[in-house]
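Saturday, quiet lab. Running sequence design on the structure tokens for the scaffold JK sent over.
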């Protein structure tokens, strides 16, 4: 499949080099030398009107004079000429372009204008794709294609490297050649005017020569495309990412605590976690991690056993491990006894296991094997230093024999120079990643731990937490739009809390009191103790300006507090409009945990959720977790578990556990609110009080962006991930009167999906999957129950019987990344076959495919599946029988 029409760029037969000069040291000269001397077997057409030949190769005066249409055009012309060149290429029918030329958005408004003109040409010439501008080019070592101005051709391998920085690319190539690292693809995308990370992840995800993808990211332009592509391939092909620009020198002024705490890098980090990526923080670690990930042995957790022949390096490794939040394996009694039997008396008797400096190869290997066999060990690091009795090569060979003994990863750090090179080669050849220092090995190990954890989170089956709304969300939507038209950008506490309450998030009701007299009257009606807060549309952080006084127990205290608040705020913020105070019930925070919950709209990733330590010190300690709506039970719980104050929620030093189940539901409800209202710029609930019995918002404020318009055609454009498509839930009645629900599948359905598969015969399963497979595992179920609703939807038929529910069948739609065609497959459990359910599922899936504006609807079955063939024939599908393998391909143009 030519994903995103990128084959002309990465597998061209003919290349036009446009704007080439006679100077061999120019950018275009280097590109030409690389194309003709690298071994590329295709045709290269230099294009330049001023020269008959370049470096002895005949030149063509313009694109129209080329004898045949190239697959790829490489543009090295000056920036002001590029728009015209792109137009010529489009008119000539060249489908792929690489614009190496600089002078675009990186130089300012004039450059941005040029990019805008090029984008309009891409739309005009349908199917044209462009890499760049301002890029190094691309390299495909297996094709001997060096379409760049890089100095050398790397060896062929299985890593696809994608970078926004051309300068970094040249450095990485040097490192890779020294380390004998090979690439399937090497891409510099520059300004990403057209082709971006999401496109390339999709393309290389389908490339059989690519086993691992490495990204160097400075910024992302299309978050939804990036997240969808990354999530689609994260489990099949590990994706390692380095994000530059973690600490911007200046931060935008935020109107809320959430805005201040949800920094850009924290949002990127949350996105990488949600997509199941491995993130490295030092550029030098990218290949160290790639080498380890490429072994396809992932640690179950952070517990590391360390074997060393010298105490110092063991201590260094321990320091690095603990500093990275790793854990030293606590060796069991049985392991200690085995080590005592096989090691000298003076070994360290603990982890790190110091086998002493006179250790021969077999002693090191035996200790490694024993520690690996300990159930508490997730991985082993073997450190060897060159001592008088040390034989690096022999030790490497002995350690290599353990590779296939266990699924636990082995890492090695043979410390030294020339004397260790041959041993390193032995280890790497055996499949053991070897590092120059213990710290480097630890960083790679902990990145793997993080990667494994991210994948677990990505495919963890959540509990089915029913979230019911007593309000009509569509009606509330209309009311909210009226609020936006008539309110200030910062909604009042009263209005903010009303919206929170409507989504089932309990709050303390604020009562307006413009005067002292009214404040006293309201307090008496509510009942003491009470809280007074400043009532001002201009003030968000009320505590910062002395606008909150707690625990007022009588009328006199209320009178004094009113006067104190209004006077203090007037001093701190004299320009603020003061409408009096609000009075609300005082909740005791004794034996409760104060949290902050928030929503922030990030300029790249859209709406983001935050939960963290609350109160007035929220920003000081910055103990927070970010997530992306929609949330389910497992995602909400993981956010809480990542907080440093999580032990307080579970019960700490005798305190009772807090109501985390209700807290999880509050997080899920907040994610619904975030999904429904793209107009929300920022939202603060601070503090959110969590007790053993209840969860209640003591303060809340919403900031809206009146300029945001919610489009009915794209209501979730503000989200990086498509939420559960509730609009596709449909009630149907079968001919026998049975009521069923047709709806998209969700992760919580995994137990019901497994049960349904269990009720299917082998013949039914073979007709659906084309093979008899072992389906009784979480790993298999996640493939079918976890859908990215942007490109895949499985519609299940659900039957409710009393208090129980079960699935009767599934119709699955899988669209290609370009949303041109969709593959369809269907499975009906045996007891419900011949009851018209297949017809109803197929018709509904056809209806959904049409709503996606897809061009083709395709499916495959077997010649013996007469009923399914009849279903397709009845609906006008084109039927093609393959006599060789007894399969039937069906197609319908939509």
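Result came back. Writing it out in full:
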């Amino acid at each position: 499949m030519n994903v995103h029409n990128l084959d002309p760029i990465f597998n061209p037969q003919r290349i036009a080099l446009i704007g080439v000069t006679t100077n061999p040291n120019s950018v275009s000269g280097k590109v030409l030398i690389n194309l003709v001397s690298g071994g590329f077997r295709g045709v290269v057409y230099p294009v330049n009107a001023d020269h008959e030949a370049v470096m002895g190769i005949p030149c063509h005066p313009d694109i129209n004079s080329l004898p045949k249409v190239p697959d790829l055009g490489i543009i090295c012309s000056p920036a002001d000429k590029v728009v015209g060149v792109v137009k010529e290429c489009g008119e000539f029918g060249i489908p792929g372009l690489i614009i190496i030329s600089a002078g675009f958005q990186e130089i300012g408004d004039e450059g941005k204008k040029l990019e805008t003109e090029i984008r309009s040409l891409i739309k005009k010439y349908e199917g044209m794709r462009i890499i760049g501008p301002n890029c190094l080019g691309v390299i495909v070592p297996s094709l001997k294609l060096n379409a760049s101005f890089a100095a050398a051709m790397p060896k062929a391998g299985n890593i696809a490297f994608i970078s926004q920085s051309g300068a970094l690319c040249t450095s990485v190539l040097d490192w890779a050649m020294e380390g004998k690292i090979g690439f399937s693809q090497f891409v510099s995308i520059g300004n990403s005017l057209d082709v971006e990370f999401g496109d390339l992840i999709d393309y290389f995800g389908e490339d059989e020569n690519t086993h691992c993808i490495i990204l160097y990211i400075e910024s992302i332009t299309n978050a939804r495309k990036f997240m969808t592509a990354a999530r689609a391939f994260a489990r099949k092909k590990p994706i390692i990412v380095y994000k530059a620009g973690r600490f911007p020198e200046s931060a935008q002024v935020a109107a809320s605590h959430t805005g201040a705490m949800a920094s850009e890098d924290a949002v990127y980090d949350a996105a990488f976690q949600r997509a199941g990526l491995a993130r490295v923080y030092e550029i030098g670690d990218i290949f160290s991690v790639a080498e380890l990930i490429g072994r396809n042995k992932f640690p179950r957790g952070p517990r590391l056993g360390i074997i060393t022949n010298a105490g110092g390096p063991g201590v260094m490794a321990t320091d690095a491990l603990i500093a990275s939040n790793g854990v030293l394996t606590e060796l069991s009694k049985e392991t200690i006894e085995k080590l005592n039997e096989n090691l000298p008396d003076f070994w360290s008797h603990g982890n790190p296991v110091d086998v002493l400096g006179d250790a021969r190869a077999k002693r090191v290997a035996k200790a490694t094997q024993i520690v690996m066999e300990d159930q508490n060990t997730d991985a082993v690091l073997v450190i060897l230093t060159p001592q008088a009795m040390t034989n690096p090569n022999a030790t490497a060979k002995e350690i290599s024999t353990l590779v296939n003994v266990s699924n636990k990863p082995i890492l090695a750090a043979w410390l030294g120079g020339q004397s260790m090179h041959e041993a390193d080669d032995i280890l790497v050849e055996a499949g053991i990643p070897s590092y120059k220092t213990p710290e480097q090995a630890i960083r790679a190990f902990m990145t793997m731990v993080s990667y494994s954890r991210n994948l677990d989170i990505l495919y963890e089956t959540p509990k089915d937490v029913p979230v019911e709304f007593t309000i009509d969300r569509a009606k509330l939507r209309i009311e909210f739009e009226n609020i936006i038209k008539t309110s200030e950008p910062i909604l009042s506490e009263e209005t903010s809390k009303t919206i929170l309450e409507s989504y089932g998030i309990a709050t303390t009701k604020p009562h307006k009191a413009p005067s002292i007299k009214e404040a006293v009257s309201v307090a008496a009606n509510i009942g003491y103790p009470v809280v007074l807060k400043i009532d001002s549309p201009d003030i968000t952080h009320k505590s910062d300006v002395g606008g909150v006084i707690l625990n007022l127990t009588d009328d006199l205290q209320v009178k004094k507090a009113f006067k104190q608040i209004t006077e203090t705020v007037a001093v701190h913020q004299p320009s603020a409009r003061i409408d009096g105070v609000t009075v609300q019930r005082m909740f005791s925070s004794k034996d409760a945990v104060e949290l902050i919950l928030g929503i922030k709209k990030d300029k790249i990733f859209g709406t983001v959720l935050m939960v963290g330590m609350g109160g007035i010190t929220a920003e000081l300690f910055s103990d927070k977790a970010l997530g992306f709506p929609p949330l389910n039970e497992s995602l909400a719980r993981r956010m809480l578990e990542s907080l440093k104050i999580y032990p307080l929620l579970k019960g700490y030093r005798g305190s009772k556990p807090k109501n985390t189940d209700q807290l999880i539901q509050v997080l899920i409800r907040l994610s619904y609110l975030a999904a429904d209202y793209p107009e929300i710029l920022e939202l603060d609930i601070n503090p959110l009080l969590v007790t053993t019995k209840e969860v209640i918002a003591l303060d809340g404020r919403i900031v809206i962006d009146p300029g945001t318009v919610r489009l009915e055609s794209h209501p979730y454009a503000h989200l990086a991930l498509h939420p559960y498509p509730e609009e596709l839930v449909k009630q149907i009645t079968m001919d026998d009167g049975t009521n069923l629900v047709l709806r998209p599948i969700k992760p919580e359905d995994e137990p019901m999906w497994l049960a349904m598969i269990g009720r299917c015969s082998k013949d039914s399963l073979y007709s659906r999957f084309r093979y008899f497979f072992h389906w009784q595992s979480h790993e298999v179920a996640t493939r079918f129950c976890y859908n990215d609703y942007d490109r895949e939807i499985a519609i299940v038929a659900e039957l409710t019987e009393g208090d129980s529910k079960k699935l009767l069948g599934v119709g699955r739609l899988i669209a290609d990344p370009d949303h041109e065609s969709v593959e369809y497959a269907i499975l009906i459990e045996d007891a419900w076959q011949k009851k018209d359910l297949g017809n109803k599922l197929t018709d509904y899936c056809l209806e959904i495919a049409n709503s996606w504006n897809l061009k083709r609807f395709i499916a495959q079955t077997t010649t013996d599946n007469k009923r399914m063939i009849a279903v397709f024939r009845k609906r006008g599908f084109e039927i093609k029988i393959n006599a060789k393998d007894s399969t039937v391909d069906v197609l319908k143009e939509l």
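Notes for JK: The first helix runs from residue 7 to 10. Confidence is low (pLDDT under 50) at residues 249-254. Ask whether to fix the surface positions before the next round.
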